[in-house]
What we know:
The chain is mainly beta. 0% of the residues lie in helices and 42% in strands.
Amino acid sequence: GGSLYASVVGVKKETKQPDGKILLEVLRDHQPSILPQTGDIVTARVLKVNARFAKVEILFSGERMLRDSFPGTVRPRDVRAFEVDSVQIYSSFRPGDIIRAEVISLGDSKSYYLSTAKNDLGVVIARSASGHNMVPISWDFMQCPVTRTKEPRKVAKPPQASSGSAKK
């Protein structure tokens, strides 16, 4: 009936083909949202911490910034790979910390489940109570360089820089 219906929103593009037919396409105005998937390494900001979990907002999936943030949860059993029963969330994360974590499941309808149980996962950026960026001093402590105050965190091991030379 002279109408065109598309399953996506966008702008109609007409292209004349060599055989004389007209090809109709719908071009999207923007890129589709990236959704974190199971196994992805994500970067998130800790929003709230209690005895049962840390609530986070996922900001990056891999190296790509997400257009919209997604809610995530880190449970005590997913903080580290050993002594799982003795993990205290407040000794691992604080509100405002930036963490690197792995998506372990899509969780429930409200939140992705995340894990920091690998050495390279955990807190990557933290601020001290006095407002200064903290420096990692071990896998489980960070220190304020100004006040020298030490605070417990599940610290992510920094990624190794490539040396540029191949091993023989």
